[in-house]
Amino acid sequence: MQHYLEFEKPIAEIEAKASELRAMTQGGPDLDLSTEAERLDERANRLLKDTYTSLNPWQKCQVARHPERPHCRDYVDRLFNEFTALAGDRKYSEDEAMVGGLARFDDEPVVILGHEKGHDTNSRLTHNFGMARPEGYRKAVRLMELADRFSLPVITLVDTPGAYPGKGAEERGQSEAIARSTESCLRIRVPIISVIIGEGGSGGAVAIATADRVAMLEHSIYSVISPEGCASILWKDPEKTRQAAAALKLTAQDLEALGVIDAVIQEPLGGAQRNRTETIDRVGSWISETLATLRKKKPDALLRSRRRKYLGIGPSSGR
Fold first, then answer.
1. What are the two backbone dihedrals, phi and then psi, of residue 149, each rounded to the nearest 5 degrees?
2. What's the pLDDT tens digit per position in 74-101?
3. C-alpha angle 134-136-138 in degrees, rounded to nearest 5
4. Burial annotation 181-217 (CB, 10 A radius, 16+ → b, else e)
5. What distance in Å separates the CA atoms of residue 106 and residue 221, rounded to the nearest whole number?
6. Which of 39, 55, 192, 209 has CB atoms 3.0–4.6 Å from 154's, for a disulfide?
């Protein structure tokens, strides 16, 4: 059964009625309601298009968090061959919120890193809902250093509400681990590209998204804080969440206009959750084109342009 968001309820009602008519048609040859069902399908598609072309920032947050969107491992399984996961930070333990390893992309060896949220209760608990601990970011540093040593491009897939804020994580140096990971992104002499596939939350996202090129899926979000956190801090009022979402300029369209990201990857009508395969293939095409361009640059040129890119982000950098 498809999961519908609150603002999709009118679409859900129409699609449910169309399914009901089709079920009645299967009851016998004397009852053919397929024409009526097709009319409802057309009506639902029109409403879906109208809805998704006018989403407000808070609705985009809901789409970005949709439980049926493709997650990191879905991309890895479809786009990469010979994926070999590498575990552990060589200091404390393994963090399953951060997926990483060696793989082939377009038959070329790469290092892949990404946040994994999980797809059901058990896997979400295993992956800590995509919220990495310090060992996850130290694993990311280890893999980026490996990529640098063997001249392998780094591809990162970002989907996290933020780094894990628990007591143990803070005791083990969460902020330092995030800073080291961000530093590694700026220091490695190989191409690094990043795609925000769902949520890009705070330093937990920036730690693996400080890349040569950054793209966002059309309905993903990327922000220094969640709308809920912003409303809690600024207004101490959860009812201000929608206002906070608009003020944060967290949508892909806002961030492209501000010069924070480089590209917006279009999603299928109704969001990535309605056609996971097509979404993943579109991301794969962007990665392939971008990687081909970056491979032509020499290491020193990559480093210089990457540093200029982030030093130049600010009020005057909007396009």
1. -65, -35
2. 999 999 999 999 999 999 999 999 999 9
3. 70
4. bbebbeebebbbbbbbbbbbbbbbbbbbbbbbbbbbb
5. 28
6. 192
